[in-house]
Amino acid sequence: MRWARWIVLVLVVAANGSALAVWRHRTEHRFDRPIQEAARRYGVPAELVRAVIWQESRFDPDARGSAGELGLMQLMEDAALEWAAASQVSGFVHAQALDPVTNTLAGSYYLAKLLRRYPQADDPLPYALADYNAGRGNVLRWMKGPAATNSAAFRDAITFPGTRRYIQAITGRYRGSLGSP
After folding, report:
1. Residues 83 and 161 in one domain
2. 133 and 115 in one domain?
3. For 157-170, what is each residue's pLDDT tens digit?
4. Residue 62 in 3-state DSSP?
5. Catalytic site residue 69?
6. Which residue in 37, 47, 56, 77 is the catalytic one?
7. Are residues 23 and 73 in the same domain?
8. 21, 74, 109, 110, 154 from 38: Cα distances, Å
9. Which of 2, 58, 112, 122 could cross-link with 42 by S-S, CB 3.0 to 4.6 Å?
10. Residues 26, 37: one domain?
11. Are 26 and 88 contained in the same domain?
12. Does 94 share its domain with 25?
């Protein structure tokens, strides 16, 4: 009889693991269409947008940050308003960033802008992600000497451990989704 209990336990654990995998897949892919459309519109890889969303909100469209960030990509008001002005969206208010379509459009626009901001770098991604997370002023502080163009030196120059982890988490998830090391 003991072996029967173990079999039942193993089956329950396996079933829960499968249910968790299905839930995780649904959670991560329910916004595929807006992510694809926003990424295509602004010329950023959809998997990068997905990695930012995972890190910022774990795909929770109602996420709210302690500094006023909203939605999937945790948009600050200034970034959302900048997108709205550039896209000629009249009457835009920051609360509209809770809409997943609006959020992925505005967030992808902003991410594309940040990636273009560092053309001198051998890899603009760490610079753009640091900017997204810690702000332009901090990025400029960390871009001294070799760190101005060398992304490895730049990552070493970052003085905020949270920003280092942020960059590592997103680049790992993004490059992993591409099958890259």
Report:
1. yes
2. yes
3. 999 999 999 999 99
4. coil
5. no
6. 56
7. no
8. 26, 15, 8, 11, 28
9. 112
10. no
11. no
12. no
pLDDT of 79 reads 97
> Cα–Cα distance between 117 and 125 in angstroms, integer?
10
Angular region, 135: left φ>0, alpha ψ -120 to 50, beta rest: left
**Per-residue model confidence (pLDDT) at position 66:** 95
Give the CATH number of the domain where residue 97 resides.
1.10.530.10
Q: Which residues contact 147 (CB under 8 A, 6 or more apart)?
A: 153, 154, 156, 157
DSSP letter, residue 99: S
Same domain membership, residue 36 and residue 93: yes
Distance between CA atoms of residues 10 and 32, nearest Å: 34
Contact residues for 24 (Cβ-Cβ < 8 A; gap 6+): none
Cα-Cα end-to-end distance for the chain: 48
Q: What whole-number distance in Å separates Cα of residue 9 and Cα of residue 118?
A: 54
Q: pTM of the full predicted structure? A: 0.84
Query: What's the domain range around 172?
Result: 32-177
Crossing angle of helices 124-134 and 46-57, rounded to 10°: 30
Per-residue pLDDT of 6-65, as tens digits, reads 565 455 555 666 665 665 656 678 999 999 999 999 999 999 999 999 999 999 999 999
Domain count across the chain:
2
Q: How far is CA 151 from CA 24, 123, 170, in A?
A: 32, 6, 15
Q: Which helix (H) or strand (E) holds 12?
A: helix 2-29
Which of these ranges, 20-29, 109-118, 129-138, has the smallest mean pLDDT?
20-29
